[in-house]
Amino acid sequence: MKKSLKITLIVVGSILLLLFVATLLVSPIATAYINKNGKDLIGRTIQVDNVSVNVYTGHLEVLNLKVLEDDDKSVFVSFDTLDVKARLLKLLASNVYLDHITLAGLNVNVIQNGEDFNFNSIIDFFASDEEEVEEEDTTASDWKISLYNINLSRGRVYYADKGINTDWDLEDINIKIPGFVIGGNESTDAGITLQMADGGTLNTQVNYDINTNDFTAMVKLNDFAISNIKAYLTDMMRIGRFDGILDADITAKGNLDRIEQLAILGNAHLKDVDIRSNTNQPVIALRSLNLDNANIYLDKELYDIGSITIDGLSSRYDLYANDDNFSRFLIDEEPSPADTAAAAPDTASAEESEMEVHLRHFSLTNSQFTYADHTLPDRFEFPITNITINANNLSLSGTNAATIKASLPHGGSAFIDWSGNLDDLYSFQRLKLDIKNLQMADISPYTVAYLGWPFEDGTFSFLSLNTIRHSQLDGQNHLDIYKATVGKKRKDVDAEINIPLKAALYVLKDKDEKIQFDVPISGNIESPDFNYMKLVWKTLGNLLVKVATEPFRLAGDALGISSKDEQFIPVDPAQQELSSEQYYMLERYASAMNSVPGLKINLQQQLDAASDSTTLQLAEKRNAQVVAHLTQQMHVPAAQISTEISLIDKLKKPGYFITGKIEEDQQ
């Protein structure tokens, strides 16, 4: 053998032997190097059991790797196994090609404290001391990245925000991506599965066509505990409890080049909701809320929803002197000047496009609502149960309609028929309210506050038809009261309207103890002084004042002297004694005064102004006879009777003109 050939063979053999030895040593060397130089590599201590590299097959395996926190004690990131298989010869064709990437047992702990994160030191480690400005390279790259069979199994991500004292624990994270190509024209499918420690799973599937930039993203959320987001609402609400389970199935379709044309389709279901304030006061609860067949098209500003069904809703409204329970629950932040400017409406853009909302069907069943008014002298709490609402084809444009049914305390019922505009509430609204068999005692706190009298018994029906056109309210209210019984006048209450209610109700009752009258209401609902309830009570109070000041004109059957003619008793100026007809008429007034508490009458004897002294003496004698008969024979208290003589020029018909007035009775 020639010497030169022999030398060549020795050199080549030596190189091959060195390469073979190197391949045997590269894994332990890499393992040792990483364990020793972690802080030089990423600024943190790295611990790894084994790094196995096969340069011939392109296989990399890393076992039990940990990246520690800055304290060199806590674990920031760890995983059990990383297994990567690459085709090295593809690099010659400018293609990074991985047959598979498997990552098992990944565990990531992210801690936030204000604006600081526990990975900030790693970012700072790689940050350059001086920012380098590089010109953007717009030249198309020849490189292609092909990643296949990407699998993440048994992953876990823990996130804690120390600033708001909340944490999220996502367990059993599984991600499967069949293929992902950058620089080619292949489609990519990716799927992610998350299991949350507090309950719930998240499944996602993404289909992406790299050639057209079209994508479809599907998200399924099962049994998600909404308490996970409670901490993020504490800046807006004073929350004590925030429980409920959410399921959602949502699909988003679009194109990355035209993201404004994104379409979102899906369903959402919420159940077992219990929201309370930080004082444990109930705010809202419900058994279930289902949103089905929602279609949202961002470019068209179209929100088309098939149905919203709510079951078992429970809420309450507590009114206080200066606020209510909802304003106490919500945190009202003062807007900054920048926020105010940003919130200013853009008239031009508003004219260009209008949001369209269509709700095909809305229903609410088995629900209840409690109204409590703490501004009254007596506590008023009024539960409304068995609430049912049905509406079809609701939209922001045009006229909508809905019906509402509910049960009231002690066997009462309410029915509401509504139609109106949602886009402009002041333009047109029509509301028909029909209340039956409402117990008067249930609304007694309001009669005490406004009138000073409590109701102890009686039933009440109310038919109200209210129409709003261009902010002007026209309300027609018909009241039907049966056997109303009033208690003692409340001396401790400074009522807004002081009237002898007990007597006024007696006057209004017919022979069957029914009271019926109309209360019209009108006004501009945009006026800052407009208050519907106050208008009702004011109008009702004015009616009762008329009853008190003009009882005979409004008495009906209760007094038996309701006609205008019966408020006059004819008298012959020359008669010496009262006639039987006059006694009969007086006895009817006496009966009324004995029956109606506080009723006083004035008998004005009208004579011609030319009457002589004898006629006037006879008139005074008749007045004495009238008073004596009413007080001695009919047992009417003298304080309830007054008489007078009036001389009138050219009087056509002499006699007694009788007026009545009901003065307040404290009993």
Annotate the secondary structure layout.
Layout: H1 3-42, E1 46-54, E2 59-68, E3 75-86, E4 95-104, E5 107-113, E6 116-117, H2 120-126, E7 144-161, E8 166-182, E9 187-196, E10 201-209, E11 214-225, E12 239-255, E13 263-277, E14 282-297, E15 302-311, E16 314-319, H3 325-329, H4 337-343, H5 347-352, E17 356-373, E18 380-395, E19 399-408, E20 412-421, E21 428-439, H6 444-451, E22 455-469, E23 472-486, H7 501-508, E24 514-524, H8 532-549, H9 551-554, E25 568-570, H10 580-595, E26 599-608, H11 613-633, E27 641-648, E28 655-662
Parallel strand pairs: 4-7, 5-7, 15-17, 16-17, 26-27
Antiparallel strand pairs: 1-2, 2-3, 3-4, 3-5, 5-6, 7-8, 8-9, 9-10, 10-11, 11-12, 12-13, 13-14, 14-15, 14-16, 17-18, 18-19, 19-20, 20-21, 21-22, 22-23, 23-24, 25-28, 26-28
Q: Segments where pLDDT lies below 50 for 5+ residues? A: 12-24, 347-352
Percentage of residues assigned to helices: 10-25%
Helix/strand-derived category reads alpha+beta
Number of strands: 28
What would you call the shape?
rod-shaped
Count of discrete alpha- or pi-helical segments spanning 4 or more residues: 11
Return the average pLDDT rounded to an integer.
83
| Fraction of residues in β-strands | over 45%
Q: N- to C-terminal separation? A: 141 Å
Rg, rounded, reads 44 Å
Described by strand count, sense and barrel closure, the largest sheet is: 24 strands, mixed
